[in-house]
């Protein structure tokens, strides 16, 4: 488990308000959160969202409902106030501590513990709220797979199939990059030669070759760790639904692959590589800067020297005028 996702629906007995939202984060780390708070008259709309939906579907349904209901000024005010309240309480209690508590509860699938954790947080807003909670733990690979499926649905399977029909792509196996929704980077920030982590969409004939090349990636419990691949080409592909990036990768031992990805996805990356790239970038920028250097042997006159030079000049000028005047008279 690399990520936790906690879906929450609640009703305040004291204020006649209903809320829906989620907390999402990396294991033992700070949660991202978003909630929608509405008056009781919108309760049916809130109940229409299925907490059992997978993370991608739930977030899409939540965002659609939120966009619809925020047109109401009362809902907008309540939602803003509720999210601000949660942020304040999380900061007081410590967001990392909350992430650790939620991680432990999700790992144990202890819904009652989650209700206690969130109930204590909501105590100041509304004592004794009725809470309905569904949580799931995910690996980065699982989360990535959900996103790939969602991407193909959004852009239509045939659009991607058409791209893959190119002669240079047709026989390359398809991979998908590992998505890190919290700390990842967009494909825009990756260059040719950079290394990323990928997983095959289907193993098929590729499995034996991968096992021989990367035996340590195949664990005894059946899990397969992501493979490192080097980007060898990167193309921007415009479609009617938006922009996609098409990449080819080299995993070594003559294993090549392909993938398409939206620039909105955050890809897992090696922090050391990114850090080194930034250092090199800074060095290049420093060399390109124009430096103005004052020569060490350049003597710049002081203020007093300039003053006396001016007085001397005026004296000579005055003397010259007097001489010319007398010569004219004579």
Write up what this structure looks like.
β8 (242-252) and β9 (255-261) form a beta hairpin. The strands form two sheets. A five-stranded antiparallel beta sheet has the order 5-6-7-8-9. Strands 3-2-1-4 form a four-stranded antiparallel beta sheet, with helices on both faces. The chain has two domains: 3-138, no CATH class; 141-281, no CATH class. The protein has 330 residues and is α+β, with helices and mostly antiparallel strands. Mean pLDDT is 83; it is low at 292-296. The longest helix has 27 residues, at 303-329. The N and C termini lie far apart (111 Å). It has ten helices and nine strands. The chain crosses the membrane at residues 306-327. Keywords: Membrane, Transmembrane, Transmembrane helix. Pfam families: DUF4899.
- Average pLDDT: 83
Q: What characterizes the major β-sheet? A: 5 strands, antiparallel
Shape: extended
User: In percent, how helical is the residue content?
Assistant: 40-55%
| Sheet with most strands: strand arrangement | 5-6-7-8-9
- Tell me the span between the first and last alpha carbons: 111 Å
Number of domains: 2
User: How many E strands?
Assistant: 9
User: Oligomerization state of this entry?
Assistant: single chain
Strand percentage: 15-25%
**How large is the radius of gyration?**
33 Å
Q: What is the succession of H and E elements?
A: EEEHHHHHEHHEEHEEEHH
Number of helices: 10
Structural class of the helices, strands and pairings? alpha+beta
Low-confidence stretches: 292-296
């Amino acid at each position: 488990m690399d990520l936790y996702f906690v879906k929450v629906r609640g009703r305040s007995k004291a204020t006649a308000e209903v809320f829906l939202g989620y907390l999402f984060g990396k294991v033992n780390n700070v949660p991202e959160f978003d909630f929608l708070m509405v008056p009781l008259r919108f309760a049916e709309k809130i109940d229409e969202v299925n907490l059992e939906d997978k993370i991608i579907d739930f977030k899409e349904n939540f965002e659609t409902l939120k966009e619809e209901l925020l047109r109401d000024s009362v809902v907008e005010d309540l939602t803003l106030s509720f999210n601000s309240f949660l942020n304040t309480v999380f900061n007081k209690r410590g967001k990392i501590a909350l992430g650790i508590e939620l991680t432990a509860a999700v790992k144990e699938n202890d819904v009652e513990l989650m209700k206690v954790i969130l109930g204590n947080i909501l105590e100041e807003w509304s004592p004794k709220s009725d809470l309905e909670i569904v949580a799931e733990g995910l690996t980065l690979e699982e989360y990535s797979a959900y996103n790939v499926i969602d991407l193909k649905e959004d852009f239509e399977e045939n659009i991607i199939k058409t791209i893959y029909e190119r002669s240079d792509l047709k026989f390359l196996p398809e991979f998908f990059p590992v998505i890190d929704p919290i700390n990842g980077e967009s494909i825009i920030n990756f260059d040719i030669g950079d290394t990323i982590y990928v997983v095959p969409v289907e193993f098929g004939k590729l499995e034996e070759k991968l096992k021989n090349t990367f035996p340590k990636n195949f664990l005894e419990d059946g899990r397969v760790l992501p493979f490192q691949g080097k980007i060898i080409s990167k193309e921007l592909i415009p479609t009617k639904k938006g922009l996609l990036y098409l990449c080819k990768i080299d995993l070594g031992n003559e294993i090549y692959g392909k993938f398409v990805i939206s620039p909105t996805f955050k890809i897992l990356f090696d922090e050391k590589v990114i850090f080194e790239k930034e250092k090199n970038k800074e060095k290049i920028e420093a060399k390109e800067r124009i430096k103005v250097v004052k020569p060490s042997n350049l003597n710049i006159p002081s203020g007093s020297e300039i003053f006396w030079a001016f007085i001397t000049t005026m004296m000579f000028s005055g003397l010259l005028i007097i001489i010319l005047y007398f010569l004219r008279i004579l």
